[in-house]
């Protein structure tokens, strides 16, 4: 499912159930600052948005930012690289400063590994948006061997460079504490087989995996004609190779499409493919046989979408009135946040390696 090209950003966070400042409890320290309004940090320019650029090489970096500090109240969001959210909308009182820390993965190309949609800029890019964005300090330094959570998947996961399309991998990053980082190698249009065999995708990811790094593997949307044996074989190959590097493979069944028959999702929505293979069932069976954790995102996203019903569930996906396109497969920013929340919930429930680093 290659992403269509659209330039609009999705709506900002704000509805119930999204990651909010409360999710970052313990990571920020706010204090009043009676000093005069500060100049922007080195490398930053603009007012709304404020953009910052740092000419670092690909790798992982510890980034500390201080937002606020101006004579007026502020409302600031922080995004890095290809629309990865790091700090949800954060309010600061006039003269107050709040400091937050993150570990950020920098790649080139910075969005999808094959360069679909654009390659972005070399180095680290940070954008501070919001109704009145304020930033008074930025620090960037090389991270010392963080735990890296790798994402292997398709367009429902990937770092989409431009809105309104948003992968859930772009929206789980605010939940990850410093010392761990998300490296999103998902790529639009990939099946389990194409991802496995493209040198820019699974082989590139695998070359960087270190002991105990989790690798989250989600495929199904583009395995429309894949046989059961081929699908199982592709998953087992990825599992075996990740384990050989000391990594921890985690299977993620594909999230549902919004295709209803009455108030229930259709078999196609639940990823029974064109040759009759129930892909989530096959993935669950592989997980059992290989003793690999499985995040059943098909089941949890089905429960979410069916609970909302045919009409209200449209907000999870892309709507013409809001996003300029109607799409019952790809997520809005709101939807990607909800789906990402289901992934995070399962990570916590199963106590997977990333759990200790979740806020």
List keywords for this structure.
single chain, Rossmann fold, Jelly Rolls, 5-stranded parallel sheet, disordered N terminus, 5-stranded antiparallel sheet, 18 strands, 7 helices, 359 residues, 27% strand, alpha+beta
Write a brief structural summary.
This protein is an alpha+beta fold and 359 residues long. The chain is 21% helix and 27% strand. The protein has seven helices and 18 strands.
Describe what you observe in this structure.
By secondary structure, the chain is an alpha+beta fold. The chain has two domains: 29-143, Sandwich (Jelly Rolls); 145-359, 3-Layer(aba) Sandwich (Rossmann fold), CATH 3.40.50.1110. 21% of the residues lie in helices and 27% in strands. It is built from seven helices and 18 strands. The chain has helices at 192-197, 202-206, 228-244, 279-290, 297-312, 320-323, 333-349, and strands spanning 29-32, 44-45, 50-54, 59-68, 74-80, 84-92, 96-106, 124-132, 135-142, 147-152, 180-184, 214-217, 248-252, 260-261, 264-265, 294-295, 317-318, 327-331. A five-stranded antiparallel β-sheet has the order 2-3-8-5-6, with no helix packed on it. It has a five-stranded parallel β-sheet with strand order 11-10-12-13-16. Helix 3 links the parallel strand 12 and strand 13. The chain is globular, with a radius of gyration of 20 Å.
Secondary structure layout:
Blueprint: E1 29-32, E2 44-45, E3 50-54, E4 59-68, E5 74-80, E6 84-92, E7 96-106, E8 124-132, E9 135-142, E10 147-152, E11 180-184, H1 192-197, H2 202-206, E12 214-217, H3 228-244, E13 248-252, E14 260-261, E15 264-265, H4 279-290, E16 294-295, H5 297-312, E17 317-318, H6 320-323, E18 327-331, H7 333-349
Parallel strand pairs: 10-11, 10-12, 12-13, 13-16
Antiparallel strand pairs: 1-7, 2-3, 3-8, 4-7, 4-9, 5-6, 5-8, 14-15, 17-18
Helix pairs in contact: 3-4
């Amino acid at each position: 499912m290659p992403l269509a090209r659209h330039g609009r950003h999705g709506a900002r966070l704000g509805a119930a159930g999204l990651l909010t400042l409360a999710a970052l409890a313990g990571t920020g320290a706010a204090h009043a600052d009676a000093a005069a309004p500060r100049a922007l940090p080195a490398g930053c320019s603009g007012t709304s948005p404020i953009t910052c650029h740092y000419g670092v090489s690909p790798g992982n970096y510890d980034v500390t930012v201080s937002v606020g500090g101006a004579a007026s109240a502020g409302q600031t969001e922080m995004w890095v690289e290809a629309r990865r959210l790091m700090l949800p909308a954060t309010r600061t009182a006039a003269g107050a400063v709040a400091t937050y820390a993150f570990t950020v993965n920098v790649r080139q190309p910075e969005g999808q590994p094959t360069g679909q949609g654009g390659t972005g800029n070399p180095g680290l890019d940070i954008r501070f948006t919001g109704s009145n964005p304020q930033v008074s300090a930025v620090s960037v330094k090389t991270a010392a061997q963080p735990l890296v959570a790798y994402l292997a998947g398709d367009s429902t996961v990937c770092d989409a460079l431009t809105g309104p399309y948003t992968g859930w991998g772009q929206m789980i990053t605010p939940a990850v504490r410093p010392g761990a980082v998300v490296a999103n190698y998902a790529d639009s249009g990939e099946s389990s087989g194409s991802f496995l065999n493209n040198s820019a995708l699974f082989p590139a990811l695998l070359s960087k995996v270190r002991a105990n790094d989790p690798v989250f593997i989600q495929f199904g949307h583009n395995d429309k004609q894949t046989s059961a044996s081929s699908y199982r074989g592709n998953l087992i190959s990825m599992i075996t190779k990740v384990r050989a590097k000391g990594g921890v493979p985690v299977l993620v069944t594909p999230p549902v499409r919004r295709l209803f028959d009455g108030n229930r999702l259709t078999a196609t929505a639940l990823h029974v493919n064109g040759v009759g293979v129930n892909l989530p069932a096959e993935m669950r069976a592989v997980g059992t046989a290989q003793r690999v954790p499985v995040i059943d995102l098909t089941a949890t996203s089905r429960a979410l979408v069916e609970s909302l019903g045919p009409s209200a569930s449209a907000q999870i996906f892309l709507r013409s009135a809001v996003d300029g396109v109607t799409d019952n497969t790809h997520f809005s920013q709101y939807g990607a946040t909800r789906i990402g929340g289901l992934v995070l919930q399962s990570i916590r429930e199963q106590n997977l390696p990333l759990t200790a680093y979740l806020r």
